Amino acid sequence: MATKKDEKGPSMIETFQEFKETKNIDRTTLVSVLEESFRNVISKLFGSDENFDVIVNPDKGDFEIHRNRMVVADGEVQDENKQISLTDAQKIEPDYEVGEEVSEEVNFSKFGRRAILNLRQTLASKILELEHDSLYNKYKDKVGNIVSGEVYQMWKREVLLIDDEGNELHLPKSEQIPSDSYHKGETVRAIVLRVDNENNNPRIILSRTSPQFLERLLEAEVPEINDGLITIRRVARMPGERAKVAVESYDERIDPVGACVGVKGSRVHGIVRELCNENIDVINYSSNTQLFIQRALSPAVVSSITLDTENRKAEVYLQPDQVSLAIGRSGMNIKLASMLTEFTIDVFRVVSDTEADEDIYLDEFSDEIDQWIIDAIKAMGLDTAKAVLNAPREMLIEKADLEEETVDYVLGVLRAEFE
Question: Which residue spans traverse the membrane (predicted)?
Answer without folding.
Answer: none
